[in-house]
Amino acid sequence: MIDCLFCKIVEGEIPSEKVYEDEHFLAFKDINPKAPVHILIIPKEHISRVENLEENQVEMVGRLILLAKDIAHQQRIKNGFRLIFNNGPDAGQAVEHIHLHLLGGRKLTWPPG
Ligand code: 5GP
Ligand code: ZN
User: Fold this and answer.
1) Domain containing residue 99: CATH number
2) Is residue 73 part of a domain?
3) What domain range is 41 assigned to?
4) Strand partners of residue 13
């Protein structure tokens, strides 16, 4: 079995503050939030990085983004939000299980660091 933090969160071995769950996806609050709303949205399937995505995962990726939009509305984020995939070390990807950051609830500066 893969030793993966987010797989353990999916399995419930590590607790998380869930905001959404279905058969294929889980969304939970980031433990170290960078904005008033900071949620991680993941596929339950273990995929390490965006660069490892394949053609047959196109629909899953589309659903992930639509889900992020729905959760942004559910969280009553006003005036916009940001969606981020960190991919690889230079981007600061710390957990090697693909995750979409949803950030909102404050004015976000650009560019990020
Ligand atoms: P990355 O840097 O890989 O794009 O993002 C990983 C995110 O996971 C970070 O924002 C970090 O705060 C969050 N994180 C790390 N460990 C845990 C945990 O055990 N629980 C939760 N809810 N978030 C975590
Ligand atoms: Zn995993």
Assistant:
1) 3.30.428.10
2) yes
3) 5-104
4) none
How far does the centroid of ligand 1 lie from the alpha carbon of residue 81, in Å?
18
Is residue 56 included in any domain, yes or no? yes
Instruction: Let me know if residue 109 belongs to a domain.
Output: no
Interval between CA 11 and ligand 2 midpoint (Å): 10
Pocket of ligand 1 (CB under 6 A): 5, 14, 16, 28-32, 40, 86, 92-95
Evaluate whether residue 113 is within a structural domain: no
Rounded distance between C-alpha atoms, residue 60 and residue 69, angstroms: 14
Number of structural domains found in the chain: 1
Q: Is 101 a catalytic residue?
A: no
Span 48-92, pLDDT tens digits: 999 999 999 999 999 999 999 999 999 999 999 999 999 999 999
Please list, in sequence order, all residues whose beta carbon lies within 8 angstroms of the beta carbon of residue 33, skipping any fewer than 6 positions away. none
CB neighbour burial string for 59-73, b if at least 16 within 10 angstroms, e if fewer: eebeebeebbeebbe
Query: Of 24, 38, 97, 99, which residue is the catalytic one?
Result: 99
Among protein residues, the one with the nearest Cα to ligand 1's atom 15 is: 31
In this prediction, residue 2 has a pLDDT band, given cuts at 50, 70 and 90, of confident
